[in-house]
UniProtKB/TrEMBL annotation:
<keyword id="KW-0378">Hydrolase</keyword>
<protein>
    <submittedName>
        <fullName>Cytosine deaminase</fullName>
        <ecNumber>3.5.4.1</ecNumber>
    </submittedName>
</protein>
<dbReference type="Pfam" id="PF07969">
    <property type="entry name" value="Amidohydro_3"/>
</dbReference>
<dbReference type="GO" id="GO:0004131">
    <property type="term" value="F:cytosine deaminase activity"/>
</dbReference>
<dbReference type="GO" id="GO:0046872">
    <property type="term" value="F:metal ion binding"/>
</dbReference>
<dbReference type="InterPro" id="IPR032466">
    <property type="entry name" value="Metal_Hydrolase"/>
</dbReference>
<dbReference type="GO" id="GO:0006209">
    <property type="term" value="P:cytosine catabolic process"/>
</dbReference>
<dbReference type="InterPro" id="IPR013108">
    <property type="entry name" value="Amidohydro_3"/>
</dbReference>
<dbReference type="InterPro" id="IPR011059">
    <property type="entry name" value="Metal-dep_hydrolase_composite"/>
</dbReference>
<dbReference type="InterPro" id="IPR052349">
    <property type="entry name" value="Metallo-hydrolase_Enzymes"/>
</dbReference>
<keyword id="KW-0479">Metal-binding</keyword>
<feature type="domain" description="Amidohydrolase 3">
    <location>
        <begin position="42"/>
        <end position="381"/>
    </location>
</feature>
<dbReference type="GO" id="GO:0035888">
    <property type="term" value="F:isoguanine deaminase activity"/>
</dbReference>
């Protein structure tokens, strides 16, 4: 298959991308447009990019909002309570059906790489077992990383440590954590040491729900970063949320940034989720409840955006469209400056791929997988401004999804 008339980020002019089976065989400058052969594609001067990435979602919880009750306070903590009620009703088939329905929504929006957190604070590990099957059964659609996520704590939940170890033995790819939710600060610290040991031993990646609270005293990020630094594991470690950083004072944050930079860890922010769940204990002024996305980026560290939830006890909306998260995130994080807009797609492509450690399994380079998107606009700025879409998604050298833009008729 050949994709003609492609505009590529960071390169001038138009290009022709030749796919050979499941690999990219060539990328050449294109000066004239030949007739398009059957089976080839015309990007028509629009951007061609590697697939969008969903770096942070909870596929075992999606499409459950209101079952049995809605989260009325809008807080993270009521979300965890409502989820504990729904969790009692979870079955193997229920988890698989909802996850697959959600994966279809992600695929419809050009996503081909997904990291999902799966709740392992359940003595039967039912959701994990279901998601391990989903990972195999959806390989033609997405590459799925599964995080062993202790929603109700590692130290504060009965047999929490053993459940994490079992989850890794069963095949989880990533070790998770939730130190700010542990009953005490000491337990939060020991949970991080435990999960880093487990990751080091097993070779798993690490992605911790870290300091997802407006409490400026929640300072587990420094513990995670120092563990990553000392063990030389920074490239394999991600801190998700870190929203307490939005409440840290600047003196502490400036000291913290030195450590964060040395550690080499990545950051994932879920801007729509955080603006919804955080700031709930404030009257006015009311905090935005996000991590310092722009500052992390300016400091040369790796940060990206995720959706977190789609119609679950924490967040009632969502449709799988990561471009909606990008647009909202740029607003919420004060990143509508032209320099930020010009490279905004980094936040849902290359930066996310780095956080997920996709390495040579990602990117528009000769020899890499023949996975790519044709977008509806010629550059990052225009994609965000026009609220564009992925028009075609190609995976393993074949068209996976095609979108026909809406037609408008003027009177
Ligand atoms: Zn999450």
């Amino acid at each position: 298959m050949i994709i003609h008339n492609a505009r590529l980020r960071g390169r001038d002019g138009l290009h022709r991308i030749t796919l050979d089976g499941e690999r990219i065989a060539a990328i050449d400058a294109q000066h004239a447009l030949p007739p398009i052969a059957e089976g080839d594609l015309n990007a028509a001067g629009n951007l061609v990019v590697p697939p969008f990435v969903e770096p942070h979602i909870h596929l075992d919880a999606t499409l459950t909002a209101g079952e049995p009750a809605w989260n009325m306070s809008g807080t993270l903590f009521e979300g965890i309570e409502r989820w504990a009620e729904r969790k009692a009703l979870v079955t193997h088939e229920d988890t698989k059906t909802r996850a697959k329905k959600t994966i279809d929504m992600l695929v419809d929006h050009g996503i081909q790489h997904v990291r999902t957190h799966v709740d392992v604070t359940d003595p039967t590990l039912a959701a994990l077992k279901a998601m391990l099957e989903v990972r195999e059964e959806t390989r033609h659609l997405i590459d799925l990383q599964i995080v062993a996520f202790p929603q109700e704590g590692i130290e504060s939940y009965a047999n929490g440590r053993a459940l994490m170890e079992q989850a890794v033995e069963l095949g989880a790819d990533v070790v998770g954590g939730i130190p700010h939710f542990e009953n005490t600060r000491d337990q939060g610290v020991s949970s991080i040491k435990f999960l880093m040991d487990l990751a080091e031993r097993s070779g798993c990646l690490v992605d911790v729900h870290c300091d997802e609270t407006d409490d400026p005293q929640s300072r587990f990020l420094e513990v995670l970063a120092e563990e990553a630094r000392v063990r030389g594991m920074g490239a394999r470690v991600t801190a998700s949320h870190t929203v307490a950083m939005g409440s840290y004072d600047n003196a502490y944050c400036s000291k913290l940034f030195r450590l964060l930079k040395m550690s080499g860890i990545s950051f994932i922010s879920c801007p729509t989720e955080s603006i919804h769940l955080q700031g709930r204990f404030d009257t006015y002024p009311k905090r935005r409840g996000l991590t310092r996305v722009a500052e992390i980026d300016r400091a040369g560290m790796n940060v990206c955006f995720g959706q977190d939830s789609i119609v679950d006890p924490w967040y009632p909306l969502g449709n799988g469209n990561i471009l909606r998260i990008l647009e909202a995130g740029l607003h919420i994080c004060h990143m509508l400056g032209y320099e930020d807009l010009k490279r905004s797609l980094d936040l849902i492509t290359d930066n996310s791929a780095r956080a997920l450690n996709l390495g040579e399994g990602y990117g528009l380079e000769v020899g890499r997988p023949a996975n790519l998107l044709i977008l509806s606009a010629p550059d990052d700025y225009e994609m965000v401004r026009s609220q564009g879409h992925a028009l075609v998604s190609v995976r393993h050298g074949k068209v996976l999804m095609r979108r026909t833009p809406a037609q408008i008729e003027r009177a």
